[in-house]
From TrEMBL, chain A:
Protein name as catalogued: Cell shape-determining protein MreC
Family: Belongs to the MreC family.
Pfam family, one: MreC
Compositionally biased residues, Acidic residues: 334-343
Gene3D superfamilies: Rod shape-determining protein MreC, domain 1, Rod shape-determining protein MreC, domain 2
GO biological process: regulation of cell shape
InterPro entries found in the cross-reference section: Cell/Rod_1, Cell/Rod_MreC_2, MreC, MreC_beta-barrel_core
Cytoplasm among keywords: no
Key word Phosphoprotein present: no
GO cellular component: plasma membrane
Keywords of this entry: Cell shape
Domain Rod shape-determining protein MreC beta-barrel core: start-end pairs: 171-316
Region listing for Disordered, in residue ranges: 1-47, 321-343
UniProtKB/TrEMBL annotation, chain B:
Name of the protein: Unannotated protein
Subcellular location: Cell membrane
Cellular component aspect of the GO annotation: plasma membrane
Keyword ATP-binding listed: no
């Protein structure tokens, strides 16, 4: 078959060559057809080296991974720092731009209910409405700061108040957020992050003005925890990113201990308060499974924090930390503002 | 023209990244957000071909890997988006691809990127999610990207096409 084709090839060429005009036309037609098939001409040359480029860039990616995996990513830390310093403030800016847009549904809800109630006071209503629309968001935020202050008081730690400005996608299969406080605010890696409701996570890396927080619902996050009522100790792991409510699994060290439903779970705390300080409320026991094979209890914990609507959070810092903003002190008072203003 | 193109591509990637981490999570479906950076790379691939798209994919992926909310090994998104640039660039066959081509390219690219990202995670031992959840995330990501395609891809492709130097006659 191959032989036949090979012999027919030159013969076809010969027969085409005798009537000159036709051959040129058919050659042109063939080239045109080929061109159409391989579409825009220059692509032919562009297409070919793309495979070597693919290999080169693939290897570059592998090199990045290797660099990041060796020596705990020390080689890439400066780069990460630079990117964080550039993108972090941009994220904070984008969130600031976006938040009024997100408050719009709230605004309309306020608007419609007001119109029903005070239909007669329309001109007063319009003034009120404009005020309320912007106030609702601020009021929520103020309430969050209030809660945070109460938390600082309850826990007895100093907190750096900050806001969540970026959320990692579920496609990355890890639950991380960016907060708008970094090393300038006294935030360092392995610090505990809390909100008004309870434990949020820990700082994994900090840039100058932003930091990345690993949430406790991340599957790679492990928190030493104890049942508040019985003081039984265990390890709490996240269950992954999918699902509206992030649930946590608690594995108790004492296999015979059976916690009751609705028992509260708090952090047990690590040496030196890193990465988690002790006594931070985490969640409530909702279900208890006993695993016969591993002869241990698996306890499902519902976190107090709503990870879907994280906004104001606080980073636990040692008292007396110099910061670019006012710290919420263990007495619930703001402190350190003057320090920040001078810097 | 080259610098203008590079600047426009970089700006598009940065805007996509910022929207992806700040606005998109409020619309997230089970935590899955549209991968806008991927859409930029696909748009580049469909208009500019694989070479440009692969380089852009690498840069955009490295940015995704290093920018703040990321906590995974750097290079994983870079690799995924380089491959997307290659695959989507190979699809480009006409000067102006049809809507079906664009949508199916986005769907394929989204599937390839998220799966590849997950696979490198599995290889590096960073992933601790079950196969079911993994497939759910990959599926939802594809749906999101396809849903956003009609709104995002045409302007992006028009931008890349306008910045294209005149083709060789």
């Amino acid at each position: 078959m191959a032989l036949l084709e090979r012999t027919s090839g030159p013969r076809g060429g010969n027969s085409g060559a005798s009537p000159v005009g036709r051959s040129r036309r058919s050659l042109a037609a063939r080239r045109e057809r080929r061109e159409r098939r391989w579409s825009p001409g220059p692509d032919l040359d562009r297409q070919r080296p793309s495979r070597s480029l693919l290999v080169a860039l693939g290897l570059a990616s592998a090199t990045l991974m290797t660099l990041d995996l060796t020596a705990g990513g020390a080689a890439l830390d400066p780069v990460r720092g630079v990117v964080a310093d550039v993108v972090g403030p941009a994220e904070a800016g984008a969130t600031a731009l976006v938040s009024p847009v997100l408050a719009v549904p709230d605004f309309f809800r306020t608007h419609s209910s007001l119109r029903e109630e005070v239909a007669t006071l329309e001109e007063e209503n319009t003034a009120l409405r404009a005020e309320l629309g912007s106030a609702a968001f601020q009021r929520n935020r103020l309430a969050a700061y209030d809660e945070l202050t109460a938390t600082a008081e309850d826990l007895g730690y100093s907190l750096v108040p900050s806001r969540v400005v970026g959320w990692g996608p579920a496609q990355s299969f890890s639950s991380t957020v960016t907060i708008d406080a970094g090393t300038d605010a006294g935030v360092q890696p392995d610090m505990t992050v809390v909100s008004g409701a309870g434990l949020v996570g820990r700082v994994v890396s900090a840039g100058r003005t932003t930091a990345t927080v690993l949430l406790i619902i991340d599957p790679s996050s492990t928190v030493g925890a104890r049942i508040g009522d019985t003081l039984d100790m265990g390890f709490l792991t996240g269950r992954g990113v999918v699902g509206d409510e992030g649930r946590l699994d608690l594995e108790l060290v004492d296999r015979t201990a059976v916690p009751a439903r609705a028992d509260s779970v708090v952090t047990w705390g690590s040496d030196g308060g890193a990465p988690y300080v002790s006594g931070v409320p985490i969640g409530r026991v909702t279900r208890v499974y006993s695993s016969l094979r591993e002869t241990s209890q698996r306890v499902v914990v519902d976190p107090y924090v709503d990870f879907g609507s994280l906004d104001v959070v606080g980073v636990v810092v040692p008292t007396g930390t110099t910061s670019d903003r006012a710290l919420v002190g263990p007495d619930g008072e703001l402190s350190g503002e003057s320090d920040g203003a001078e810097q | 023209m080259r610098t203008a193109r590079a600047a426009a591509a970089a700006a598009a990637v940065l805007v996509a990244l910022l929207l992806q981490v700040s606005l998109a999570p409020h619309l997230a479906w089970q935590g899955v957000v549209p991968n806008l950076v991927l859409l930029v790379v696909v748009a580049a691939a469909l208009t500019r071909g694989p070479q440009f798209a692969m380089v852009l994919g690498f840069a955009a992926g490295a940015l995704l890997d290093l920018a703040p909310p990321a906590d995974h090994t750097a290079g994983r998104w870079a690799l995924a988006l380089v491959v997307v640039g290659y695959v989507a660039g190979r699809v480009r066959s006409e000067a102006s691809p049809t809507a079906t081509t664009v949508v199916s390219t986005v769907a394929a690219s989204s599937f390839v990127a998220t799966s590849l990202f997950a696979m490198t995670g599995l290889l590096l031992g960073e992933l601790s999610v079950g196969v079911g959840e993994l497939l759910l995330v990959v599926g939802l990501a594809v749906v999101w990207d396809v849903v956003l395609t009609p709104f995002v891809l045409p302007p992006l492709m028009a931008m890349f096409r306008r910045l294209e130097p005149a083709r060789l006659a």
